[in-house]
Design goal:
Radius of gyration: 24 Å
Number of helices: 18
CATH topology of the largest domain: D-Maltodextrin-Binding Protein, domain 2
Distance between the termini: 61 Å
CATH architecture of the largest domain: 3-Layer(aba) Sandwich
Structural class: alpha+beta
Number of strands: 25
CATH class of the largest domain: Alpha Beta
Oligomer: single chain
Length: 570
């Protein structure tokens, strides 16, 4: 097989997706001349949580969301393919880039070579790290920075297990050339160190100065981190020396357009909606369905986009502890919860029963519940009588009680879990609900000290990661502690399979298997809304240009300050 054919084959086997189910199309905006200046105030997707750590070696899932304004990656979303620009992609998935909408960011070109399998990446020349007083002088990004980033992450004791096991080595063969050598084909090659959760390229000077301190951070991206107030806001200021441009109506413009981007951290949901309504927020990326009618009534000029959330909601049951080591108990608790009623009464019909870990966006991988075996469908059908029977057979005729942790950072979860508890109590099972701040909540899972129940959202990420992180033995994001050596082998075989059609079939079968084993109480996935004011231009509700990374999106937005003033806002 020639190198060009291999490259095409591997690209075709990479990540791709369809539009989000149920999305409301955002009208393509007529081209306008961009304006420079102004500040973009945002209640982002995770507006109740500020940065959890600034050190990339901590391997925290939220790192890209906070550092992705200034740490760039080898690849990113091609936002010219967004629906708001006349394309077909919504760009809301947490870590799933459509195959036809991936562009080189720091990577200018790349090519595959065989025997052994290698990927050669040519970096853009002239991309600069700006001066950071006390940390580093201005200098050019070079291949050694990519190698340093990889080695720092790979050698971290907090590394996600097996994440880079497919890589033999990463080396700089020339000043702007990086060579990745692989053990064998790996289906997530581009996601793992190209545009994924832990792919931001950082300079050695930041690590030397102390990466845990935000004041030491610096990168090649469109913004610079200039202020951080814990629990209040994070401020990113324009990098005037940024290399990239945006094309509007055939003309190229230097970006970013805005002078500042401010993340507003807001613990109170109602306060965030009030800030949006009064123009103190330009964009709100996470409006709950129940707030939409009032906002549309009181602020009718707001623009909207809707998408099916890219997270699975569930109550994980630790299968390594009694009574959840008994599948009859796990199945009983699923049947005890009226999930259809939750869709109607809690979500007002603005939710779907999907069967996490797959999402309708994953064309070819996703299988609707209607096509599942009867034993799987049974878990999504309310049947308290059978639930009581199964509990009695498992030795719990009078039920039992167990502790479940929930994050106080999620207004939705704090409202939803009492409803789940009420259903379970009808079959004799009582929840001891323990609300925790996000840092403590996450620490319980990552240190395996969480209780027998753990109520959470878990991002779908992408079809293969969704199965791996949630159900493979020893994985960090496996709150049920599910472990099946046979399933583990199937997952690794799937990663080695070059034929995407075969991978899709393998993942559909594995999804059926884990659903049937019921390590979670599977719950509905809701629709989420993005709202923004008309003065926010070149935007259509996009949320991520890579794994939880909105930086390239914000860099291309401009604020029509004259329109904002005409509408009575400053």
């Amino acid at each position: 097989m020639k190198s060009s054919r291999l490259r095409n084959f591997l690209l075709a086997s990479s990540i791709g997706a369809a539009l989000a189910a149920g999305a409301i199309p955002a009208a393509a905006q007529a081209p306008e001349k961009p304006q420079y200046g102004g500040t973009l105030n945002i209640a982002n997707v995770y507006y109740t949580i500020n940065a959890l750590t600034w050190d990339p070696a901590d391997w925290n899932w939220k790192a890209n969301h906070d550092s992705g304004q200034y740490f760039e990656q080898l690849f990113a979303a091609d936002l010219s393919k967004a629906r708001s620009r006349g394309g077909k992609h919504q760009f809301v998935a947490d870590a799933w880039l459509p195959l036809d909408a991936i562009r080189g960011e720091l990577a200018e070109t790349w090519r595959w070579m065989e025997n052994p399998l290698r990927l050669e990446v040519k970096l853009r020349k002239g991309v600069m790290f700006p001066e950071k007083k006390g940390v580093m002088a201005a200098r050019e990004l070079v291949a050694d920075d990519v190698v340093f980033t990889y080695n720092t992450l790979n050698n971290s004791p907090k590394k996600v297990p097996t994440f880079f096991d497919h890589v033999v080595k990463v080396e700089a063969t020339e000043k702007h050339t990086v060579l990745f050598t692989f053990k064998d084909y790996f289906a997530e090659w581009d996601y793992r160190f190209g545009w994924g959760y832990y792919s931001g390229i950082f300079p050695k000077e930041v690590i030397a100065a102390g990466a845990k301190d935000w004041k030491n951070h610096n990168g090649t991206g469109p913004f610079m981190l200039t202020d951080f107030v814990n629990g209040n806001q994070t401020t990113f200021t324009k990098n005037s020396g940024y290399w990239d441009k945006e094309t509007i109506a055939g003309a190229q413009y230097k970006i970013p357009f805005v002078d500042k981007v401010i993340y507003r951290t807001m613990k109170d949901e109602a306060a965030s909606y009030a800030a949006l309504r009064t123009g103190k927020l330009d964009i709100h990326e996470a409006v709950r369905w129940s707030a939409v009618p009032e906002l549309k009534k009181n602020a009718p000029q707001l623009k909207w986009d809707r998408s099916l959330a890219m997270v699975g909601t569930f109550l994980a049951m630790r299968v390594d502890q009694k009574p959840f080591d008994d599948i009859r108990v796990r199945r009983a608790l699923n049947m005890a919860v009226n999930k259809q009623e939750i869709v109607k009464s809690f979500w007002g019909g603005n939710a779907e029963m999907l069967g996490y870990p797959m999402h309708p966006d994953y064309t070819g991988y996703y299988e609707p519940l209607s096509a599942m075996p009867e034993s799987v469908k049974e878990l999504f059908t309310y049947n308290p009588d059978k639930a009581k029977k199964l509990l009695a057979e498992a030795g719990h005729p009078n039920g039992f009680s167990f502790k479940v942790q929930v994050c106080s950072c999620s207004p939705v979860h704090m409202d939803l879990i009492p409803m789940v508890a009420a259903y379970l109590e009808k079959v004799g099972v009582k929840l001891q609900i323990e609300p925790l701040e996000y840092g403590a909540f996450l620490s319980r899972m990552t240190s395996s000290t969480h209780g027998p129940g753990y109520f959470m959202d878990n991002g779908h990420t992408n079809p293969s990661t969704s199965i791996r992180k949630s159900f493979v033995s020893g994985q960090l994001w496996n709150p049920s502690k599910y472990s099946d050596p046979a399933l583990d082998k199937k997952v690794w075989a799937m990663y080695a399979e070059r034929d995407e059609g075969k991978r899709q079939q393998m993942l559909r079968e594995m999804t059926r298997e884990v659903l049937d084993k019921a390590p979670y109480i599977w719950l509905p996935t809701g629709y989420t809304y993005v709202a923004w004011w008309p003065w926010v231009k070149n935007y259509g509700g996009e949320l991520r240009a890579g794994a939880v990374r909105p930086g390239p999106i914000y860099a291309r937005i401009w604020v029509d300050q004259e329109l904002k003033q005409k509408m009575g806002f400053r």
